[in-house]
Amino acid sequence: MSHWEWVSNFPQHPSRLAELAAGGAVQQHPTSHPEMVAFKINGYTKVYWLKKSTILSEPGMLCEMFATLGLEGGGTSEEQAIRLNNANPEDFESLVHYYNDLQTKGMPVGVTPFKYWERLKRVSRHYRITSVEERAYKELFNILIEQNPVMAVVIAEQNPGADQEWLYAAYRRLCLRARHLSDGEAAKLHGTTVNRIIRAREKIRHWNSLSVTRRGTISRGNIIRQVFRIRGRPRNERTSR
Length: 241
Hints:
With 241 residues, the protein is mainly alpha-helical.
């Protein structure tokens, strides 16, 4: 059994969740916080607190663990903190920051945005917290589009569930930048993708040579979508772009 498997075996208990949300009948410890849930990573002394409402509203392993252990007092105090086996402290701390501090305090000091979202993607996948994993994936992809659009395309094309608008943003970045694909970049991409980038850049170069009246309602975004066969048009994409 893997070190995460024991957690995944916990059943969900809707009736318990309702009782826990209402406060339950658990006797509170003097060091407890009625609206919070305490977690501790085995082998470490630090206690992490998350809001009870957050735990109950996010389906996944943490919610299942609290549903199973909460009525017996688990998570209600530092001494009765819910134990996490072999969790990565930095990853879990990022998850706690995401829930408790991101909106009010912004990004944590001393951690690059890419590293922060990478940790969140990893920990949310372990605990099956879908909303956080999707947010982390999107943020990582946006960073890659700016810093390494080729790698963004490679990752998105390898993921059948990738949002087509993310792919469009990466393609657009490569098609509109001043420099062409380098040999090294081209080697990382599928041949079909390379050919489409070349074709889109040629069409855009021709579009740039036309007068505004001759361009009509066609935009550079339209050209990219047609070449890469991506449907729709994102909000705020004007025909002059």
